[in-house]
Amino acid sequence: MPASSTPGAPGGPSDRVTLLGMSSPNVVKILIMLEEIGRPYRFEHVDLFAEGQFDDAFRALNPNSKVPVLLLEDGTPIFESGAILLYLAERHGALLPASGAERYAVLQWLVLQVSTVGPLLGQLNHFTTYAPEGQDYALGRYRREAHRIYAMLDERLAASPHLAGADYSIADVATLPWTDYIARQGLDPADYPAIARWRDALEARPAVSRARAFVSDIQATDRAMFKRSSEAARRRFAGFGTDEPAKA
């Protein structure tokens, strides 16, 4: 279960939700959304490097042992970042049209993020960060896929100010944190100028700025947790068994 608790936006206990997570992109998107809608929340840090996501109490909230998890005021858990975004958008009537073609435009880009953009870019992050030498096929494959995804997003954003059209939506909220890694993944951000323009516009939003500032604190805690974690826990976090090779 959570190793630490940090207050988020102000609010009374009766209307405050709790977000369980760390500094991963799927958690960042929920922090941005909470700031955008002004929903009072508190943040509880899950120590993934100590395998807190695998204990029985956490698995009772999310059987898939992943963050984020949002706890509603009555303790009801919602897991999967796409489901959390939909709940918050519908509950607050924000960043998601109520009906019609505009709604489905948002939903299709949201589903693309959770089904394709996140999983494929996450695999590239894994192989870039953790894979031992000699994994050239996997690294090359996922880098090509990442370029394809970024090029597709860039083409869309060259034609539209936001992913689903004229208006900012949960599709943009969901996708923004996954575009943080372009240079780290061995790709050139200059190849995607429309993504850069879109990112600049979104990062200038006050809610995004507040969320990013809070994420900086979360990242510091993540680094401290990583430093005191065991080698076995780090390997499991990276998806390796204890007898498998990993990048030194």
From TrEMBL:
It holds the Pfam family GST_N_2. InterPro entries: Glutathione-S-Trfase_C-like (IPR010987), Glutathione-S-Trfase_C_sf (IPR036282), Glutathione_S-Trfase (IPR040079), Glutathione_S-Trfase_N (IPR004045), GST_C (IPR004046), Thioredoxin-like_sf (IPR036249). PROSITE patterns: GST_CTER, GST_NTER. Residues 14-96 form the GST N-terminal domain. Residues 99-240 form the GST C-terminal domain. CDD domains: GST_N_Ure2p_like (cd03048). It comes from the Bacteria. This is GST-like protein. The lineage of its organism: Bacteria, Pseudomonadati, Pseudomonadota, Alphaproteobacteria, Sphingomonadales.
